[in-house]
Amino acid sequence: xxxxxxxxxxxxxxxxxxxxxxxxxxxxxxxxxxxxxxxxxxxxxxxxxxxxxxxxxxxxxxxxxxxxxxxxxxxxxxxxxxxxxxxxxxxxx
Amino acid sequence: xxxxxxxxxxxxxxxxxxxxxxxxxxxxxxxxxxxxxxxxxxxxxxxxxxxxxxxxxxxxxxxxxxxxxxxxxxxxxxxxxxxxxxxxxxxxxxxxxxxxxxxxxxxxxxxxxxxxxxxxxxxxxxxxxxxxxxxxxxxxxxxxxxxxxxxxxxxxxxxxxxxxxxxxxxxxxxxxxxxxxxxxxxxxxxxxxxxxxxxxxxxxxxxxxxxxxxxxxxxxxxxxxxxxxxxxxxxxxxxxxxxxxxxxxxxxxxxxxxxxxxxxxxxxxxxxxxxxxxxxxxxxxxxxxxxxxxxxxxxxxxxxxxxxxxxxxxxxxxxxxxxxxxxxxxxxxxxxxxxxxxxxxxxxxxxxxxxxxxxxxxxxxxxxxxxxxxxxxxxxxxxxxxxxxxxxxxxxxxxxxxxxxxxxxxxxxxxxxxxxxxxxxxx
Lengths: 93, 427
Known about the structure:
A: 2 helices; rod-shaped; B: 5-stranded mixed sheet
């Protein structure tokens, strides 16, 4: 038996594959926050994904920097990771 | 851009001019500061005969704390298509903007290097070179605006832990309004109440997207080991956003998070070591009233069964006496339902009009009905006792390509005041 995507004159079955109707609306975006701050290190061209394992390396350990403390506090609540965007202050030397 | 050279006598040099048998130019996307480069070569066999027997280990580490920034290792080979080569490994990390390796008969020099580790050795030989500090470009409001608004995976919340440059704040406010998402801003924890009020007024947000938080408390720093000692300002916004994300992870069977419960008050106590209200801050009735008028949500101690430091209000910067949008949770429900309905409209775009109207209507109805059963929406008198109403119809002027959506819904609120009429009776 001929099973094909476009059936011609011949005997056969036309099937164009499975159509996925099972996808539903999910609110995955609700768990994504972006913290904007000034840090010792890090890229400025796009957000970085920061977790407990890379916060000190990627952002630079600055226990007196309010922005760093905010990221650290956020991770300390048990959130697996958070997105961080580094900006350079205009007044920064 | 940094340049690592290995000279023919086995010396490793960073940013030097001498002739080299191994020349590596690299630049990371991250603007580095206070970092060292650790270099080590390892032989895989007892008697290496070609560079394919040698692996190169590169680590960029914090020069003070030793924290690892980037680590790569691979064969000393300049071919990016050889998956084991250090170039292919560096490219795969997506941490390097540039990584170019040039080799000219480097085996002898590597064997002479102090960073070389023969096979079966302890593997402790390495050389540490100090990398120069890099300074990123100045903040550009338009670039930041377009950077965040064009992200494919758009954020659900924006968080600004402190406002130093008003330009950054204004840029983020534009982003929040464009993406229709909340922007949570923390006011400097060292300000006085009057300064915090003035600061809030000077920001002049006037929109339900913005919430201002002020925590006039002090605590022991996170990494301290004792409870007695010097205290530092206890900033709250990090924990606030963490609690909010955790709340949002508690979705029900329909996939709806309990965003109608604001992250505030007793259920979300502020957890830091040895918390204490600043001694110079007096949160009396008049001060609290002025802070509420400036719509600053204060983190302060409140006595429940025991004393807890909690976020004591849920006001947004919306200038209104009784609008739903002046409450953080109602504003979030309004924003979230709008964004989700826009997503549904987007999903069915470019379908035949009849099909579009039918499918989008059904999906919007299902979404809003589930939002209502999840507690986000409440029955409203203006909607004949229903929690929402919408109309999706073809446009009269452009019947072939445009449809119109009208959507009304009544978000859940949050009780923040009680009128208590108190009588004492004889009988």
